[in-house]
Amino acid sequence: MTTQDKIAAFLAAPLFAVAGASNDPDKFGYRCFVALKNSGRRVHPLNPRTPEIAGQPAFASIREIPGQVVALSVVTPPSITERIVEEAIATGVRWVWMQPGAESQAAIARAEQAGLQVIAGGPCVLVELAKLRA
Questions:
Q1: CB distance 119 to 97 below 8 Å
Q2: Element (H, E) at 6
Q3: What are phi and psi of 17, to 5 degrees?
Q4: If residue 117 lies in a helix (H) or strand (E), which one and from where to where?
């Protein structure tokens, strides 16, 4: 499966979460969450330190999200990404997109070993969503 095939499948998921979503409009976690939300996708923010992001309830963990999260965008430091991947595996997430700067080789290997589809190493959800609007 090519990276573009993976991106298309990721973006076709019925329910998304963004780990590392933020209330700060200057942060990538905020922009990633809002871009997915504004594209009409069902998406939930993950951030254990805030109750709400961009007017939507935030969740401390994937387990708390109502419904089955299929696609997870990760915008966290690599050490946190490794923990998020373990939770993704435990909760049945199928797709993990590690945004630039969030990648961890250990997290990539662990996710792939568990059968998750992984997008990492450069592609950015903001760029890919912008391509769809063009």
A1: yes
A2: helix 3-11
A3: -140, 150
A4: strand 117-119
Between CA 79 and CA 90 the distance in angstroms is 18
Q: Which residue, 38, 42, 53, is CA-closest to 17?
A: 42
> pLDDT digits over 87-127, tens only?
999 999 999 999 999 999 999 999 999 999 999 998 899 88
**Whole-number Å distance between alpha carbons of 107 and 120:** 10
What distance in Å separates the CA atoms of residue 59 and residue 63, rounded to the nearest whole number?
9
Mean pLDDT of 55-84: 96
Rounded to whole angstroms, the Cα distance separating 104 from 43 reads: 23
pTM of the full predicted structure?
0.95
Query: In the chain, what are the helix, strand and coil shares in percent, each to the nearest 5?
Result: 40, 20, 40
pLDDT of residue 133: 76
The answer to whether 82 and 62 are in contact (CB under 8 A) is no
Asked if 127 contacts 100 with a C-beta cutoff of 8 angstroms, the reply is no
